[in-house]
Amino acid sequence: METTFETLVRAEFAPKNTFLNTASSGLLPARTVAALREAVAMRAEGRPLDSLHQDVETARAAFARLAGVPVERVAVGPSAAAQTGLIAASLPAGAEVLTAEDDFASVLNPFHVRGDLKVRAVPLERLAESVRPGTALVAVSAAQSADGRIADLPALRAAARDHGARTYVDFSQAAGWLPFDAGAYDFTVSITYKWLLGPHGAAFLVVPEDFGGLTPTLAGWVAAERPWDSCYGPVAELAHSARRFDVSPALFTYTGLRTSLELVEELGVDAIHAHDLALADRFRSGLAGIGHQPLPAPGSAIVSVPGLGFRRAELAAAGIQVSDRAGNLRASFHLYNTPADVDRLLDVLSG
Fold first, then answer.
1. Domain 5-29+268-350 architecture
2. Which residue blocks in the chain are alpha helix, DSSP H?
3. 188-197 tens-digit pLDDT
4. Domain spanning 42-266 has what CATH number?
5. How many whole angstroms separate alpha carbon 206 and alpha carbon 189?
6. What residue ranges do the domains of the chain occupy?
7. What is the pLDDT of residues 137-179, one digit of tens each?
């Protein structure tokens, strides 16, 4: 039988409910579940774990291909907040950081807790025009977690270039369905348990070739050019690549993530993008027919409906998984969803 997008997805996913909540966490593909089980068995049986360490590098290379950057620019860590903290630690006291109002806390909080930075927040749609002389860094999510709005990244990049500011973009709610080029920005981060379909516990940081002034403040033995020769005493030689910013990886996570990224590559982000947006647009159109208007987020796989967040529990009881964010009902659509899922959500909401 010919392998198509639909047959490949059906072979990997068999959700037991109507799962429309990828913006919280994605489903694990069957191949990822199998890889995790094998990794646990290896650990339980005392087998060598060399292949699990190699999975970290395989996953790093796969993400680099998706992000359009050389693998030497990609570091691994545990979370977006930890990676943001590394960026925040590199800024001089008094530096201005421009952010979007109500962006996700992991993108914002590390700059605030420094206590000696000037953090300025503006509406997302005014971000590019608000870059000014003296702005050191602009930090923003490519797709907003709360409502799915997509930042005008080309305008932001141009404004930052004109004023000598650096850019830090969080692709956590975009990587996997929205094609992107991480090399167009100074720093990017993406966690991997949402649209990239991996387990929790991994985040990729992309840095410039010259490292952008970052100090590897979390460097341990894995940050060395020769890790296994650097287990004791101070690391004599940091990795010549972005691996110098690595934090000791959760091996099971990367073993699962390796197979999840493999699936994303097989399906293709362009095809996933078209699939996800078609479903999101179907939901937007259907909402109008039942008297509801979603928050504006054109071109996004995330749809938020004001005032309906209270119905999350009711929907869960009906076997439909969505989120309640700031009183809004948030539905997010990914490759394992179908038009029937959208129609079921609309039917319950209209009932």
1. Alpha-Beta Complex (3.90)
2. 5-12, 30-45, 50-67, 80-89, 105-114, 127-130, 153-163, 251-267, 269-289, 312-317, 339-350
3. 999 999 999 9
4. 3.40.640.10
5. 6
6. 5-29+268-350, 42-266
7. 999 999 999 999 999 999 999 999 999 999 999 999 999 999 9
